[in-house]
Amino acid sequence: MSRYDGALDAYRKALAAGSNAFQRAHLHALCGAAEDAAHRYPEALAQCDLAEQALGPASDPPEPQWFSLWFDIQDVRMGVAYWRNDMDEHARLIERARPLVEAHGSAEQRANFFFGIAQLLMRRDRYLVAEKTLELVRAGYAAAQQAGPTSLWWAGFIVGFTLVWHGDLDEATAILRETLREAERRGEANVRSRCLTYLMAAGRRRRDADGVREAIPSVIERAREASLPEYEAMAIANRAWVAWRSGEEEKAATDAQAALDMWEKLPVRYFYDWMALWPLVAMALASQRIEQAAQYARRMLPPPQQLLQEPVRTMVENAVHAWDAGRPTETEELLRQAVQAAGDLGYL
Q1: Around Cβ 347, how many Cβ atoms within 10 Å?
Q2: How far apart are CA 131 and CA 302, in angstroms?
Q3: CA-CA distance, 101 to 293, in Å (whole number)?
Q4: The whole model's pTM is what?
Q5: 61: cis peptide before it, omega within 30°?
Q6: Phi, psi torsion values for 129, nearest 5 degrees
Q7: pLDDT tens for residues 160-175?
Q8: pLDDT tens digits for 167-214?
Q9: What is the residue extent of each domain of the chain?
Q10: Which residues of 270-303 are buried (b: 16+ CB within 10 A; e: fewer)?
Q11: Three-state secondary structure call for residue 310
């Protein structure tokens, strides 16, 4: 049983014990958030429906307690849309919430609203973070600072995560370490796991093999503690990269495939397959397995995979097209160029 199932049991017992409408709405929203975190999206949305039924319609103007609970429900719905990569629904939810947040939102609600928009933009741009997205995240962080310490631990992670994919690795590392210290002080397993994971990702982008090697055991341990298998898989993918850089090709291949298999078992497609695929491409090329190298490269291209930075993306696309057109020599040359450029950009 995951940690989320334990929380759900507690919420259901509280619901069964009887409560008023606001309490029922709150407990159903908490159930929805737990189901979302466990990647059980139909169940999460069903709990959101129950929460809205318990809450009932707003008065004019809405009571602060009503609006707070209503916004929490929309926040869960946005989380589900994010994970399902349902950008139309995510955008609809943002526009549904916008007038109420602008008129009645607290600092904490404004922060979460900014983060919700930023997450939609990150999905749209496939995690090549644009300046507009970073501006929204910084605005959300500023609002979280106004809201006080209880909001900052999650806001700090969002900022650090965004900075990693914007390429601001030093600033990302500083804020993720600060947020990690607060998560450890609070005993907050979810945020602790997330911070450790993206500190490792920042090390990968720096090509800091020793730092990544040192981080991996803690990332795996904390991901299991927080019931976040996607992060355990990310650690294993980075273990493959470390093994490849150390010349341990058999271990690298085993770990890379294990990470891909773990991500494949998730209810939604994950976005960072390149972490496992680049070592496989490099090893296939080194042993003249050009077809296999091209097929590994192909898997980095479709949505929702993170967009590769240029010039790597064009090199990989051209290599795949060359293979499909029956030009293996050109494919090999393009992939060799891509592997070199991938190293320069911190993928390998």
Answers
A1: 23
A2: 23
A3: 49
A4: 0.94
A5: yes
A6: -75, 125
A7: 999 999 999 999 999 9
A8: 999 999 999 999 999 999 999 999 999 999 999 999 999 999 999 999
A9: 1-105, 271-348
A10: bbbbbbbbbbbbbbbbeeeebeebbbbbbbbeee
A11: coil
